[in-house]
Amino acid sequence: MCCDLDGVYWRGDQPLAGAAAGDAALRGAGFRVGYLSNNSSQPVGEVTEKLRAMGVDAGPDDVITSAVAAAALLARDLPAGAPVLTCAGPGVTEALLAVGLEPRRDGPVDAVVVGFHRDFDFDGLARASAAVRAGARFVATNLDATYPVPAAEGGLVPGAGAIVAAVATASGRRPEVAGKPEAPVVELVRARLGTHGVVVGDRPSTDGALATNLGWPFALVLSGVTRDPAPPGGESIPDPAPPFVADDLAALAPMLVRALTSS
Fold this sequence. Notes:
The protein has 263 residues and is α/β, with parallel strands linked by helices. The chain has helices at 19-28, 44-53, 66-75, 90-98, 122-133, 160-171, 183-193, 204-214, 249-261; strands at 2-3, 10-11, 14-15, 34-37, 63-65, 83-87, 102-104, 111-114, 137-140, 146-148, 156-158, 176-177, 199-201, 218-221, 226-227, 235-236, 244-246. It has two domains: 2-66 and 180-261, Rossmann fold; 67-176, HAD superfamily/HAD-like (Rossmann fold).
């Protein structure tokens, strides 16, 4: 079971009602549950702490982020210690260090990684786009246009895709994409979770496309960015709809347990 986090387990820092109970139902039925987030801003340890705080017993090996995927992509080709400019949050810095690369905020670099971070500004845009124009490899953690947050905070905030678009426009180059639904993260999911499973998520364009690329069923929850009709900045339920659609993880889990244990 490969579960998205933003819009499935929480919105911003607010846990979604029933998510922990839904997770427990899946685990209680004997399913391995892994967590895959396109949000690259948080280090893996902070993600696991956030899950544990809401009652989900997750460890570092259970969590994959788009930052981890971006670092793995670069580590295949760059030598140890290669400098990489980060136009991203601390999750990317951690992931690069973990694979032996040197994160930097400026200077000559071999690659640029762009991901979600709330302190993005003109100077950061100028540094990242200049490095890309100078020939650095351009990697985006993901292209999600928005992320779901509590209604009191506006419901949606700009995602990594908005920041990536700015760097792409200023540099005149399109990025390689590491996170959902692209090949680098598909490889990580198969390595961690095996060759069979279900993708649970709130965004058909990434979670649903990841399921297609894995050859797995897609289970859509409506607790994130998807509605019918689509909300401003969000997505609509695909036509035809995925095989599993529910309001949230609490409602989805019994559907998955029944379907997957009766076959």
